[in-house]
Amino acid sequence: MIAHLIFYVRNQCNSTEFYSFVLNSSPTLDVPGMTEFQLNAHCILGLMPESGIIRLLGPDLPDPSRGRGIPRAELYLLVENAHDYYQRAITSGATPISPVTSRDWGHAAGYCLDKDGHVLAFAQQV
Q: How many structural domains compose the chain?
């Protein structure tokens, strides 16, 4: 099974630049309407312009742009150096929520919001 996590974004180009820098990676797909980053062998992060979602999925879907700023999920990435990822995100314009700190579940994790308000967590084993 391969998981595709797709974020609906305001501006695909801006989000692609943000994630390219933060993940220190180039997209594996970057075409109008979809950008993809291979996070590992079984997980892909997709960036899709929110303006095209209704056209794609139909009018019964609430307009994603109306939910901006209301986090409903997070992308939790277990990485080698959480501080580096967290700092790249902040440098790229992410909003800090909580710095990388030891958590009671055995990880050091830092939280921020990307430019579209998606919660990002960068964590490492302690």
A: 1
Task: Name the 3-class secondary structure at 115.
Answer: coil
CATH code, domain carrying 43: 3.10.180.10
Q: State the CB neighbour count (10 A cutoff) for residue 119.
A: 16
Task: Assess whether pLDDT exceeds 80 at residue 14.
Answer: yes
Q: Which domain holds residue 113?
A: 3-60+71-125
Tens of pLDDT along 41-81? 999 999 999 988 888 888 888 888 888 778 888 999 999 99
70 Cβ partners below 8 Å, 6+ apart? 117
109 in any annotated domain: yes
Q: What tokens were used for 120?
A: 């990002």
Amino acid sitting at position 31: V
